[in-house]
Amino acid sequence: MKSEITQLFMIKATIIVATLFVTPNVQASIAGPSAIYGSGAGFVWEGNISAIINVNQSGTSKSTSYPINAGLFAITLDTMNSCISSSMFATSSDGNAKGIRLADDVIFVLNGVAEGNVYRYDSSNTWAYINGSMNFNSLSASTSGGAITISNCPWDVGFSRSWSDGSDDIGFKTVNANISGIGRLYIGPKAKGGVVNFPEIYLMKGYVDSGYKYTTQVLISPSQFNILTHTCTISVPPTIDFGTVNLWNFAGNSTGSPGGARKDVLGVVDGNLSISCTNNSPEATAAAKLTLMGTIQTYSNDLKVIMDNTGNSAPATIRASIKNITSPCSITGTHFSTSANNVDANKVRIDELGVGQTNIPYRFSLCSYPELGINQFGSASAQATIILDWD
Description:
The protein is mainly beta. The chain has 1 helix and 30 strands.
């Protein structure tokens, strides 16, 4: 969540007479990470960052205002007028990295030092040199000469415009900011697979010139990288065998008539799908999904069964439930295609697929469909496909 810095300045009015030159350095930004990394791989990318921003200004300004954010320096993301809120900071699940959270257990870490200063005077022409610095190894700021840290923005250091005598006249000279350090990317053991967007990262310097303004220097350009969590295989039974079924006499017949009623249970087969996964980190988990696909008979939860000798529809369908097991031939469960009311009807989500073997229970039911003709005899078959991929 981003906070607009302009909302924090609370500048009521500004009158300024000044000569201003803003000269960012020509240091080129480095490219953000763009490779494929494994979940739990730890520190996978790093780059040296450095930048200097010089603002040369002489003259005076008068302003009734409160603390100025980024008046010394700030590290910002994506937009030039937003600080990095404290809510965006996190520690990796294994405790090895602390910094900006980019995704679940994906942390951008900054090691190094940033510094900034201003030169100002009050209404009695008393000059004061204000400087502030931050050591990003500990995410704590050390300040002096009137510099202050911004409570909501751990990587933002400003200064107070309030003098002890109550005056607020300020003159600026030679205002600058600089940073030198290393940016690093950490992939924790609970990172989920998929594409992660790496934001553009700036050094920002605030100053006053006909109102509060800022200038920036890009440190790291935006990019995308991929996280691969697991390498997995799925083992499914080659055949679900319901055995011999007598449509004229079966235990689940609810009517006593040949064929019974629609959805009467002709047979049930229970078992487990076995998923085996490997990963560099034994604690890694991944969000995955199973997709069930097959030719349907009228409804998306009915798999079509074909008489082998004629190619006609058999007087039965197959219904399924995977992971969350339902009663045989229930209208709920796992479908064989998407439905008009639910595009995920044939998908089963596995939130935490761990390393090693995971068993996912299944139930396939053979359900009577006497309207399709009970006077058919011989073997019948159906085909379905189960796909495992990342959610």
